[in-house]
Amino acid sequence: MPFVFETRVKVEDALSKEEKERLEAGLNEQLDDSMQSRRVDKVLWSVIKHPPRLDTSQISKSIQNMHYYLNAQGYFQDSIGYTIDVKKVEQQHRASIQFLVWPRQVTRIDSLAYALQNDSLQKVTEANLKNAFIKKGDPFAQAPISAEMDRLVELYRNNGYLRFSRGLLFGLWDTLDVALLQSSPDPLAQALQLERLRNRRLNPTANLEIRTRPIEDSVAIRKYFVGNFVVYPNSSDTSGNNRNETVLNNVTVIQNGKAFKPKIFPPNIYLKKGDPYDQRRYIRTLNRFNNIGSWRMVDIAQLPRDHQDTVDFAIKLLPAKKYNFTTNVEGSFSQSVLSGNFVGLGFSLGLQNRNFARAANLMSTNVNYLVELGQLTAGDIIQTQQFSATNTISYPRFIFPGMMGFKKNFRGNFRSLFTLSAASTERRYLFNLTSFSSAWGYEFGWRGRDYSSNNRTFNLSVKIPNIEYSYLIRRDSLDRMIAKNPSIKNLFSDGLVTSSIVKFIMPWGSINGHNTNVIRANFEESGLLTGMIRNALFDKHLYRFVKLDVEYAKLYKWTKTSLVLRGFAGAGYELESTANPDKRAQMPFFKQYYSGGPNSMRAWQLRRLGPGSTIKSFEGDYSFPDRFGDMQLEANIEYRIPLFKMGGIPINGAVFTDVGNVWLLKKEAGLPDEIFKLGRLGTDLAVGSGAGVRVDLGFFVIRLDYAYKVKDPSPSPDHLSYRNKFFAYPFIKGSQLQIGIGYPFIF
């Protein structure tokens, strides 16, 4: 008995290559399950499991589904055929089915009209025609016509028609030209009529009129106005002795006890008493309370008054657990034949208070301990350790003098943030860095409307001001290194940063989900204004710099495999107006870039690449183990494939290539080979390639990458002969093993 081995859909005579691919993808989804072979992936191949028997009745069912799909796309003259090819392979009879589809000409909209029974609805419609999803000449397709009716319903609800529903609209269309049915005794007129009939067959059109159904209930098209609000912050059952009721700005707050301050609720309600009902403001209010985080369930009941044009609202909020305690463990591992083993471990504890100061403020306190382990020799295990503590208070409102109207005009989510943090970093034998920082800032999030693709999400955070002070204690080893390497003297020093920071993130993707994009940008300036204040503290400690970096990543996702592309460019420049001459050569090292490790250039250990094509020893006299730069360029490509499953856990593979480096910018900052020069870019870029395995546990991914230095611009002096030569390293010497948690980049 033949079984379905392969099924293909081929579209003939499509208008364009893009339309052909779109139709073939959609038609494949219309195939009956019995027409699709079920393949199971193995390590390097796939096998068919439980193949369906060939059944011609199911072919007819699939063709019928294809007809429905094409009609919905505006193709009403389609033709579909199929061929069956049965081949005998050993004892198997494999049936390959190919569907041949001729969509023919798409029917287009010849005229579009709106006929609403209500004059007010007609005026609202005509005033917003520029936003219509369909127009004359567009395909007469189901999806955009349905989207246009949904737009109208949303439009009416945004203009006060609370109870207007989708069922009140319908489309009346006509594909017949009445003039073609009127005969004429004139031979010339008859010839012209035949020509018009032929053109209509070649270019079919339809007239569309969107109407409202006969409305007997006037409530359905009644315009409503906003009435009163009642908020229940912690329970809808407030009949006990602990009941508290407060009225503020036409908002009544009824709660058990005094868990929430009543004044926090009116600013988060976007509907205003007396205004026409607006569905957008209703949804913004609903989203606002959901985004605050103090409540795990939000319900806003709309309560139209009987025989009146007013609607009241009952906001019922179910509080989330006030306190939340979290722990987290992270780790990474790097191994090199040349440099030995490096292990990074991180432990964090976090405590959240979702109703700080009874004002629905979110206060987060986090304590972190990070450790970097070096070569496992006595007394040398711990290379770096850091203790840090951060406390952030997030206010669910925009706190800024004179900007009360901002809430009414901004349609996204926003918060005000206050942050305090402290950290102590001990770099074994080199230094101890103690830092303190404080910042006031804002976070904004909103959605854009791009109907050619998925809605884009915009996220913006601003810190004004951001104040950081770092106090450095040099160890004897660092002093000896500075004595033998004077160029790094000014790199390690105390410093004050008084900056403004702007961060922007925008993710977006295609409608079919086959590709996703993310762009990130960060800008920071320090001392541009405060540097004009001349006093002993600022003259000695203040850094004046500008820093900008941009990152872009793109994920292509197919049925089984995926491809990730990433690019990063960043640069920071210490201004010549910095008062202290010892701080002018380069950026403070705690603001500089570095490369290598499991999340960057994977063929190098962390902070072991660059700057530029320098040759410096990592150990011994005239050496320094860490590499920093004022500029970084990096590009990465990674192709991911499924391998197999072990105990139900997906094991995936990847091959990748990383290209990049870091550089210094000022001539006085270092040696000539460390300074960025455009003419040397190709020479200075490092290249690493490798392969990896990912164990996907669902809640996190364990990653093992093995990379090789294809081109190394900054080897140690004993490998000078390999410098900037492709594939110069013996495989073992040029290899690097990296173990990390999660994927290396955004995706």
What is the gist of this entry?
By secondary structure, this protein is mainly beta.
Structural class assignment: mainly beta
Largest sheet: 16 strands, antiparallel, barrel
Q: Helix count?
A: 10
Task: Please identify the oligomeric state.
Answer: single chain
C-alpha geometry: globular
The end-to-end span amounts to 46 Å
Q: Give the helix level as a range of percent.
A: 10-25%
Please list the strands of the largest sheet in the order they lie side by side: 14-15-16-17-18-19-20-21-22-23-24-25-26-27-28-29
**Count of β-strands:** 29
- Low-confidence runs: none
Strand coverage percent? 35-45%
Radius of gyration: 34 Å
Overall pLDDT: 86
